[in-house]
Write a structure and sequence with these properties.
Length: 454
């Protein structure tokens, strides 16, 4: 097919008759006409087959590029989901930690409150014991008062009988007693005896009343002490009731916090599950992305194989304007990750939106988003240069891509615009040159590409 496309055009001329040829028979003329007709048909088929194949190839490439773009969008979406899930997990764990600290503080407060409740309960118990002792003493005093009252009542009965006898003695027996008196001394003695009896009776009654009053005073004092103890007990019971209420509230709060901790743990677990799901989706999409890239590269390789004339004589600078070379090819500390690694290209610092052109003619192998940190990027396969080596170039961190995979671009053709996508700290073009078509054989672009200034 390839040879047919590039063969010299042939022309049908007038019938040629050799100088000494025999006249051509009608049958020979017919055979020659049929042969010429078949040749024309073959030429027409040859002329139309390749374009049809190219159109099919282009359609397949466009379809694969669409898949690549969708996978890139899916990867970005899953990365956002992964980032959101990580933030959610971090927030849930921070909340869990904070709630645990609050529970610890609350447990300390509950412990202190429990000690206070126990102390008040002990005081209530002591007051109850004191009240019990007081009540026993009051009961004993009451018994003593009753006994004393009985004694007073008995003495009073005796006193009344004695007074009645004395009255009778005064009323009816005084004359008999006087007649029985022999002298004045007996009379006086009798009178003193009667006075002594009266005084003694009065003294006994007063002592008994005084003793009763003392018992009643003691009882009243004990009852007053008891009332005081009962008031103190009531105050302690009020304090205990308040402490019990606080304790119940704190335990309720502790239960709420424990439930919140469980919820935070569940939220963290759900976030971890979401991370695993997002990570699995990213890995699946990346595998599919790489598979589609390989299919595109196969189509490009097939197209390249059908174009053996693909070659070029040299490179041109991909930017018509830039401010400076911000980073050279070689080992350095990565400004994003901080890891010391090989910088496999040159960085052209330029304003965002600066046009980027193909450094040489070739086929676009990749045009889209990179999962490896290049952001929006393009890879072009250039074929063999005059030095006999095959080359590819990579253009990374573009704001946007202006070409598509599978497309043939000419040197100086627009392929994208300077940006800062992917792992980038500012607007620039990252340019790599691969000898042999592989990143493993990346060379210093300065050895191949003319760079107007530093």
């Amino acid at each position: 097919m390839s040879k047919a496309m590039h063969a010299k055009p042939f022309r049908l001329t007038g019938p040629y008759t050799a100088r000494h040829a025999r006249p051509e028979s009608p049958r020979s003329k017919l055979i020659r006409a049929v042969s010429l007709g078949l040749a024309c048909v073959c030429l027409l088929l040859t002329a139309t087959v390749y374009p049809a194949s190219a159109a099919t190839n282009s359609t397949s490439m466009a379809s694969l590029q669409t898949k690549l773009d969708k996978l890139s969008q899916s990867i970005n979406q899953h990365k956002k989901e992964l980032s959101d899930a990580k933030k959610k997990e971090s927030a849930a764990k921070a909340l869990e930690s904070e709630l645990k600290e609050r529970v610890t503080v609350l447990q300390d407060q509950i412990s202190v409150l429990g000690g206070q409740i126990a102390a008040v309960q002990n005081s209530i118990g002591e007051k109850e014991q004191q009240i019990g002792v007081m009540q026993t003493q009051i009961t004993d005093k009451q018994t003593q008062i009753e006994q004393k009252q009985n004694e007073i009542d008995a003495q009073w009965d005796d006193f009344k009988k004695h007074m009645a006898a004395m009255q009778e003695l005064r009323d009816g027996g005084s004359v008999a007693m006087l007649s029985a008196v022999n002298d004045l001394y007996e009379l006086l003695t009798f009178n003193e005896v009667m006075q002594d009896i009266s005084i003694k009776d009065t003294e006994i009654m007063n002592n008994m009343k005084s003793a009763k009053q003392g018992l009643e005073d003691d009882k009243a004092a004990l009852e007053e002490q008891k009332a005081g103890l009962e008031a103190e007990k009531a105050e302690l019971q009020s304090q205990k009731s308040e402490l019990d209420s606080q304790n119940a509230q704190m335990k309720g709060k502790q239960s709420e916090l424990n439930n919140s901790i469980s919820a935070a743990k569940l939220s963290a677990a759900e976030a971890q599950a979401a991370q695993q799901k997002a990570q699995a989706a990213i890995e699946s999409d990346e595998l599919n992305y790489e598979a589609v890239k390989k299919e595109i590269q196969k189509l490009i390789a097939a197209a390249s194989a059908s174009k053996p004339q693909l070659s070029f004589s040299g490179f041109a600078c991909p930017l018509k304007s830039y401010s400076r070379i911000s980073s050279e090819y070689g080992w350095r500390k990565n400004p994003v990750s901080g890891v010391n690694k090989l910088h496999a290209g040159i960085d052209f610092a330029a304003a965002g939106g600066t046009p980027i052109y193909a450094a040489a003619s070739g086929y676009v192998q990749v045009a889209g988003w990179s999962t490896g940190g290049y952001g929006n990027y393009v890879i072009i396969y250039h074929g063999k240069m005059s030095d006999g080596n095959t080359y590819s170039t990579l253009y990374a961190h573009m704001r946007s891509v202006a070409t598509s995979a599978g497309k043939y671009v000419k040197q100086g053709e627009l392929i994208g615009y300077v940006g800062t996508t992917g792992n980038s700290t500012g607007n620039h073009l990252h340019l790599e040159v691969w000898k042999g078509g592989s990143k493993a054989n990346a060379v210093n672009p300065r050895s191949c590409i003319p760079i107007p200034h530093n």
